[in-house]
Design goal:
This protein is α/β, with parallel strands linked by helices. It has a domain of 92 residues: Nucleotidyltransferase, domain 5 (2-Layer Sandwich). Helix content is 31%, strand content 17%. Strands 4-3-2-5-6 form a five-stranded mixed beta sheet. Strands 1-7 form a two-stranded parallel ribbon. Helix 2 runs parallel beside helix 3.
Length: 144
């Protein structure tokens, strides 16, 4: 006598298409809800002077070497967060070294509108001593 009838079970199957759909939905959800790292504001707050005749630099030009002068007259070489504080003597030697590497070097002065004008002249003199021919100044556009 056989009281218990064994049914032969079929092996379970994993439906891959459904899993892919779920993974795509999760991926889209994570992409939409993830906050992207916001660009850090510059470490120096500069109030640039305004100019209605200012021109924007072209995208195909090489980036200029930037010298930042803050309202207290302190000098920094480089732009953004990687700007390093420099003295007047070190600025002269750095400009000379950069001009020897690249004879077509351009210098951009990014000075606060309250920066001492004497510091701007010192930077321009150091650039002339290094034989840098192209010196620009950053301004804020005053046009509406």
């Amino acid at each position: 006598m056989r009281f218990f009838v064994r049914k032969h079970r079929q092996t379970p199957a994993i439906i891959i298409v459904a899993l892919i759909d779920v993974l795509i939905v999760l991926l889209i959800f994570l992409m939409v809800t993830t906050t992207f790292k916001q660009q850090q504001p510059p470490s120096l707050k500069l109030a640039l002077p305004e100019s209605s005749q200012g021109q924007k630099a072209g995208a195909n030009e090489s980036a200029p070497l930037i010298v930042i002068i803050d309202a207290k007259g302190q000098l920094r070489l480089g732009g953004g967060a990687d700007a390093i504080p420099v003295t007047e003597d070190r600025l002269k030697s750095e400009l000379l070294a950069q001009a020897q590497k690249n004879p077509e070097l351009r210098l951009a002065i990014n000075a606060d509108k309250n920066a001492p004008f004497g510091e701007i002249i010192k930077v321009m003199d150091a650039a002339k001593a290094a034989k840098i021919k192209m010196i620009n100044a950053f301004t804020k556009d005053s046009r509406p």
